[in-house]
Amino acid sequence: HWAGRVVGARTARGSPRWGLWMGEGLAGGRGGRISKGHHCMVDGVSATDLLTVLLDREPQPMPTRAPAWHPAKEPTNLHLLADTLADAILDPIDRIRGLPMMARANLAVGFSLSDLGRLASSYRTWLQPAVGELNGPIGPHRRWSWASATMDQVKEVRTALGGTVNDVVLTVITRGFRDLLLSRGTDIKGKVVRTLVPVSVRSAAEKGQYNNRVSGLFAGLPVGVEDPVEALENIREQMNVFKASGQAVAGDALATLAGFAPPMLLSVSARLGTQFQQRMVQTVTTNVPGPQFPLYAAGRQMVYAYPYVPIAGSVRISIAIFSYLGGLNFGFTGDWNSVADFDVPTSGIQPGLAELVAI
């Protein structure tokens, strides 16, 4: 309940875009820690990097003295005006630097036939009918639930059946949504649950920078497929095509070049694009790799780390996955009023993974 109140509450516009809460009194003498940050500041990867900085790698690290910090002098109006003029000159130069990336992202003029074929295939999933009942208005209150697995289980499936860790995770989540829809009596034959899969597009040189470098893929979770191996193969084929088409890089390239558009036009198009995606996408599924070494806070080891990702627009369910110390932890967020059967997809994670391991 404490976590629900913290993560479900909106951050006031006049307060910081981040927060950190520590609590005690959990079972077994344990405590809890909740960190909350706005996506305008960090994405999942940089937030994980920040986590390893805030926590200790040893139970009792050597005490250090914090360096002296002095706030910068508040800028004058003249200073702000000068910065604005400088940005107006330098920003277009930075946008031009994104043109080579556009060419590499299969968006420039001069496609090859194979490029066109891969790009067309990557959007084939939009032709599959989606389960529409998962979308709808959302209220102010949230349900949050969690499930756990191990990386060893996922790697065992990946070794035996092929694909990536993310492919296996998406297949297991597909089982959860299939159970949910079947329990509601929904006709799922030949249908998918379309999900936005955020993808990090940061380069190796950007590691350790606390920023937001995310694009996205739109995959169709084949809930109408009963055979888990067939579902895994379906998802693996989709993800391979997405990677070959450069769709995620293309999204990042478009964002880089957005500065060329007039601000008013950019604002209108962004709102329309967001509304379109929220109507066409039924869920969000984000998988962030976490540290595989123990972290400590005030001498206590962090045992589990469960993620939370918000819902918005007409998307009533979202799922985040975070790996830590050999564990794979799922966090499900749902609208309180419309997803009363929220325990069904959560409880489908373990059976979905177990049936893949048993094959």
Write a concise keyword list for the protein shown above:
single chain; 359 residues; alpha+beta; six-stranded mixed beta sheet; two-stranded antiparallel sheet
Description:
With 359 residues, this protein is an alpha+beta fold. Helix content is 40%, strand content 18%. The chain is built from twelve helices and ten strands. The strands form three sheets. The protein has a six-stranded mixed β-sheet, with helices on both faces. Strands 1-2 form a two-stranded antiparallel sheet. The chain has a two-stranded antiparallel sheet with strand order 7-8. Strand 7 (296-297) and strand 8 (300-301) form a beta hairpin. Helix 5 (113-122) packs across helix 8 (228-245). The longest helix has 20 residues, at 77-96. It is globular, with a radius of gyration of 22 Å.
Mean pLDDT, rounded to whole units? Answer: 79
End-to-end Cα distance? 38 Å
Number of helical segments?
Answer: 12
Order of helix and strand elements from N to C terminus: HEEHHHHEHHEEHHHEEEEEHH
**Structural class of the secondary elements?**
alpha+beta
Q: State which percent range the strand residues make up.
A: 15-25%
As a whole number of angstroms, the C-alpha radius of gyration is 22 Å
Shape: globular
Low-confidence stretches: 105-112, 264-278
Secondary structure tally: strands: 10
Ordered list of secondary-structure elements with their pairings:
Elements: H1 2-8, E1 18-23, E2 32-37, H2 44-54, H3 77-96, H4 99-104, H5 113-122, E3 142-150, H6 151-161, H7 165-183, E4 193-200, E5 214-221, H8 228-245, H9 247-256, H10 263-280, E6 283-288, E7 296-297, E8 300-301, E9 317-324, E10 327-335, H11 343-347, H12 349-357
Parallel strand pairs: 4-6, 6-9
Antiparallel strand pairs: 1-2, 3-10, 4-5, 7-8, 9-10
